[in-house]
């Protein structure tokens, strides 16, 4: 390695990085994760997971979310972003490492076991019952606690008044943004302490995307910890407290959202022209 390569560094994808000014962005390290995550609500430690035996999408990924935080996960296609959420929610098998909630090991627990513990999940697609009404969708969200329906319905419709107005309308007839609101509302019915969102703005118009990000911030402001995977990297980083950049199944960079937006190496390698469009 030449002196110049030592000075500028090599990115996680093997691309040389230009010398850049210091920022709050950090290259992810095991030591840094352990030091920062001691009081975390949700943790993923050295998680390896995939969909086929012997084929790993995640390769020792670390992540943590503190109580009340909004954490964003961005990265190139195929980096393992959605797989990480699914692994934490018991939808993809973890073959190494562990996932903890309030210090309790929840690795490979099934989704129906995690919901009563306070973990909610909103998938990217097929996330509403299209033939059911809005109210019936929300009722399904509290299936395990039917007596809580009225109080939770009032909470969700106070947060999203349009759901109260459309309570008798079939979810399949709603716009994409409204269906996403129903999906989020249903996940909130069980009063989660942490909500996992898988690309909530995917396929929506720019106006509807803005509404989804506004709604996500609203949910977080009620005290719910949110971990969000998002294709719209710039908008995600604008609203999140901290962000992670995943690359090749590992956490490559982390830091405050605004720091990641402004970090030249993150922009060049992961955000491209979208990241530079201020």
Series of H and E elements: HEHEEEHEEHEHHHHEHEHEEHH
Secondary-structure class: alpha/beta
Could you tell me the mean pLDDT? Answer: 89
Helix content: 25-40%
Number of strands: 11
Strand order of the largest sheet: 1-11-10-4-9-8-7
Largest sheet: 7 strands, mixed
Q: Distance N terminus to C terminus?
A: 36 Å
Care to describe what's here?
A hairpin with a 2-residue loop joins strand 5 and strand 6. This protein has helices at residues 3-8, 30-36, 81-88, 111-114, 134-141, 149-159, 161-165, 176-188, 206-221, 233-239, 257-262, 264-276, and strands at 26-27, 42-49, 58-65, 70-74, 94-101, 104-105, 119-122, 194-198, 225-229, 242-247, 250-256. It is built from twelve helices and eleven strands. The radius of gyration is 19 Å and the shape is globular.
Task: Spell out the key features of this protein.
278 residues; alpha/beta; 7-stranded mixed beta sheet; 4-stranded antiparallel beta sheet; globular; disordered N terminus
Could you give the topology of this structure?
Layout: H1 3-8, E1 26-27, H2 30-36, E2 42-49, E3 58-65, E4 70-74, H3 81-88, E5 94-101, E6 104-105, H4 111-114, E7 119-122, H5 134-141, H6 149-159, H7 161-165, H8 176-188, E8 194-198, H9 206-221, E9 225-229, H10 233-239, E10 242-247, E11 250-256, H11 257-262, H12 264-276
Parallel strand pairs: 4-9, 4-10, 7-8, 8-9
Antiparallel strand pairs: 1-11, 2-3, 2-5, 5-6, 10-11
């Amino acid at each position: 390695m030449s002196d110049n390569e030592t000075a500028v560094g090599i990115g996680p994808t093997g691309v040389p990085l230009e010398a850049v000014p210091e920022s709050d962005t950090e290259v992810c390290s095991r030591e840094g994760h352990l030091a920062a995550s001691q009081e975390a609500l949700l943790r993923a430690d050295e998680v390896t997971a995939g969909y086929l035996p012997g084929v790993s999408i995640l390769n020792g990924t670390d992540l943590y979310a503190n109580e009340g935080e909004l954490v964003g996960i961005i990265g190139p296609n195929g980096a393992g972003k959605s797989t990480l959420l699914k692994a934490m929610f018991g939808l993809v098998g973890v073959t190494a490492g562990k996932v903890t909630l309030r210090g309790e090991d929840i690795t490979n627990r099934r989704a129906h076991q995690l919901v009563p513990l306070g973990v909610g999940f909103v998938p990217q697609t097929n996330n509403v019952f299209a033939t059911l009404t809005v109210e019936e969708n929300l009722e399904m969200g509290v299936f395990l606690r039917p007596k809580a329906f009225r109080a939770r319905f009032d909470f969700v419709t106070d947060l999203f008044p349009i759901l109260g107005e459309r309570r008798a309308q079939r979810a399949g007839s709603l716009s994409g943004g409204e269906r996403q609101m129903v999906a989020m509302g249903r996940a909130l019915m069980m009063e989660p302490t942490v909500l996992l969102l898988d690309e909530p703005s995917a396929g929506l118009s720019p106006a509807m995307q803005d509404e989804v990000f506004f709604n996500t911030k609203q949910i977080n402001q009620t005290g719910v910890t949110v971990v969000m995977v998002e294709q719209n990297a710039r908008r995600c980083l604008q609203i999140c407290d901290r962000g992670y950049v995943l690359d090749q199944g590992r956490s490559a960079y982390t830091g405050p959202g605004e720091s990641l937006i402004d970090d030249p190496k993150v922009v060049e390698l992961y955000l491209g022209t979208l990241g530079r469009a201020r």
